[in-house]
Structures are given as structure tokens and as C-alpha cells.
Amino acid sequence: MTLAEGILAGDQRALARLITMVENRPQEAISDLQALYPHTGKALVVGITGPPGAGKSTLVGRLAKKLRQLGKTVGIIAVDPTSPFTGGAILGDRIRMQELATDPGVFIRSMGTRGSLGGLAKATHNVIRILDAAGKDYIFVETVGVGQSEVDIVKTADTTLVVLVPGLGDDIQTIKAGILEIADIFVVNKADRQGADRVVAELEMMLDLSNREAAWRPPVYSTIATTNKGIDAVVEGIEGHIQHLRQNGQLEVRRRERYRTEIMAIVEEEIKARLLDLWSAGGLEQLLEKVAAREKDPFAAAREILQPITGNGKGGTP
Ligand SMILES: Nc1nc2c(ncn2[C@@H]2O[C@H](COP(=O)(O)OP(=O)(O)OP(=O)(O)O)[C@@H](O)[C@H]2O)c(=O)[nH]1
Ligand SMILES: [Mg+2]
User: Is 311 left (phi over 0), alpha (psi -120 to 50) or beta?
Assistant: First the structure.
């Protein structure tokens, strides 16, 4: 039985093994990912991002628990671009949700960088696919921070929650413009701390002033994740946003945009790999000689290499 078949049959070990393969030897995972693809597209992907220690994991644990009560299955991926660690155990501790770890309806996994950040984003994307094929209704992707790499990871989500807390110093000023743009929902966690109301008010004011897509104004919720306060409203907010995306066709539009990005990335990667093969196999030495001897210019040489793709040797459409 292949790993893909095992996963479709509900085998948790096959699931864990394919995820590990995606992280460590992605090339070997391709055929299983291909076999799983027709079974994907049903899960709703929720991205959670925000500053370190904001309570993202605690919040995800609470949201997952609520969704389990509603009969939904949940996958949780915690991505930490600053950590080389990967696996289940670390997150098991960090997520502070021991009951969830033993619930077969919940699959928890943490991922570190290992190689490049780009590699991490891609691996995360493929892990989402695997959990989707495995039948998880909701998949949460937690990322630390507010940088570009997190934004890239979060872009794979249907709905993005940005978690903030009181006492971030300059509060709202610390939110980068990119984060404001990607937020579909704001959660001000640690509402038991002083200043939470002010963060909510500042966010609302910022939303009043912003000229983002008028069709959806990100709601702002305040929560105390540690005591489960405000969690139900956030779950409703997530469902509300998904419903909004469905109603105006945006869910499909967003996903198509992602397929496009993904296909382009794969093409780029394959071309690069083949080109490197060509160079190292010595297949381009003659061309190189001609360029060196001024018999051919680099543009013409590049077009010649690309000819099998472009067809006419002049670039543009075949
Ligand atoms: N007072 C208070 N503490 C909270 C709340 N939510 C979480 N915490 C605490 O904040 C700390 C960090 O919580 P995590 O859930 O690990 O936060 P995180 O954002 O996932 O942290 P990183 O993944 O390390 O960035 C823990 O000690 C939590 O118990 C809250 O609503 N109020
Ligand atoms: Mg965390």
C-alpha cells in the first residue's frame, strides 16, 4: 500500500510518514501528493499569525476544541521559521492542549525551517494538502511573527486571523502594513490585561481609515484564551468570513490565485533544476564558447536553451 492509499484509508502513521517525507525528501513525496490531490479542496484553511507569545497556540487549541464539540475534525500546523525543530512533541508542549493531543479527530504537527524559508512555505503548503486529503475539516496554520515569510505562509489560508495583545509598546504601530492587509479577522488576546480595550479601539479606528476592500470589514474580537473567554465568537467569525467568501465567489478566486502561484513556482523550480543539470552535464559548453567568442550574444544563447519550451526560439507564446 502506498502512503497515499494509507492516508485515504485513515492510517495515522502513513499520514505522519508522508509529512516527514515532505519535510525531508520532498522529491520522493511527489507521487503520493499527486495521488492525494483529487481528494483535496474540502478543508478550510485558517492562518493564525501574530507576535511571539501572543497566545496563538493557546487560542488555536481552544478553537480546535470548540470545533471538535461541533463535530468537526481539525489539523494544526505550527510553523516556526526561527526554529530548526520539527515534529509533534515540541508543539504538544507548546500548544498546552494535552487533551487535544490524544483526540484522534485532531492532528498536530510543528515545522521548523530545516532548509530555506521558501522551502518551509512550500512544505507547509503540501502538509496542508495532506491533512486536507486525510479529511480534516479545518486546518489551522500558526506562524510566529509579522515578517514576509510568515505572510507567505499565511497566504495559503482561506481565512487569516491576526492575533494582537495589549502592551506591545507602540501597539498598532508595530503592525506592519502587510499584516493589516492580510487580516480577515483580528483577535485581541489577553483581554484580562490592561489596555486591551485600547488596542480594540485603535484597530477599529485604523479600519475606519483604511481603504481596503469594502465588501469585508475585518471584525475585531477580544479573547482570554487561557480561560476560553470569547472563543465561540471567534469560531462564528471564522465561519462568517468563509460564508462571505463563498457567497461572493471569493473563496474560489483566492484558491485559483494560489494554484497559479503554485504552478508557476513548480515550473520555475523544474526549469532551474534542468538548467543546472544541463550545465553540469556539459551540454552548454559549446554555446558558452560561442558567447565568449562573440559569435552569439547571451540573449540569443538563452533563447536557444529555452527553445524546447517557447517553441519558436524567440520567447513569447509558442
Ligand atoms: N494572561 C493571559 N495569558 C495568556 C492568554 N493566552 C495565552 N496566555 C499565555 O501566554 C503565553 C504564551 O502563549 P502561547 O499560546 O504559547 O503563545 P504563542 O503566540 O503561541 O507563542 P509562540 O508560538 O511562542 O509565539 C502562555 O504562558 C499562555 O498561557 C490570555 O488570554 N491571557
Ligand atoms: Mg505558539
Answer: left
Evaluate whether 201 touches 222 at the Cβ level (below 8 Å): no
Q: How far apart are CA 19 and CA 133, in angstroms?
A: 12
Residues in CB range of 262: below 8 A, 6 or more apart: 125
Grid cell digits, residue 243: 460564508
| 265 CB-near residues (< 8 Å, 6+ apart) | 122
Phi, psi of 187 (to 5 degrees): -125, 120
Q: What is the pTM of this model?
A: 0.87
Average pLDDT of each block of 10 consecutive residues along the chain (318 residues)?
97 94 92 98 94 90 96 91 53 57 88 67 90 97 71 80 83 61 92 94 86 82 97 98 95 91 88 89 91 97 87 52
Report the candidate in 15, 34, 48, 39 with the shortest Cα–Cα distance to residue 189: 48
Residue 58: its H or E element: helix 56-69
Query: Cell triple for residue 18?
Result: 508522508
CA dist., res. 117 & res. 149, Å (int): 7
Cell of 129: 494538502
Report how far residue 94's alpha carbon sits from residue 110's, in angstroms, rounded to the nearest whole number: 10
Contacts of 31 (CB under 8 A, 6+ apart): 2, 4
User: Hey, whose CA ends up nearest to atom 2 of ligand 1?
Assistant: 190
For a ligand 1 pocket test, name from 48, 56, 58, 83 the mutation site with the most ligand atoms within 8 angstroms of its C-beta. Answer: 58
Question: Could you give the domains of the chain?
Answer: 40-248 (3.40.50.300), 259-310 (no CATH)
Which residue is it, cell 465567489? 249
Protein residue whose Cα sits closest to atom 28 of ligand 1: 55
Q: Which ligand is nearest to the CA of 58?
A: 1
Taking each helix axis from N to C end, the angle separating 26-36 and 12-24, rounded to the nearest 10 degrees, works out to 130
Between CA 139 and CA 123, with CA 28 as vertex, the angle to 5 degrees is 30
Q: List CB contacts of 50: < 8 A, sequence separation 6 or more.
A: 56, 144, 146, 162, 163, 164, 165, 187, 189
Query: In angstroms, how far apart are the furthest CA atoms of the chain?
Result: 74
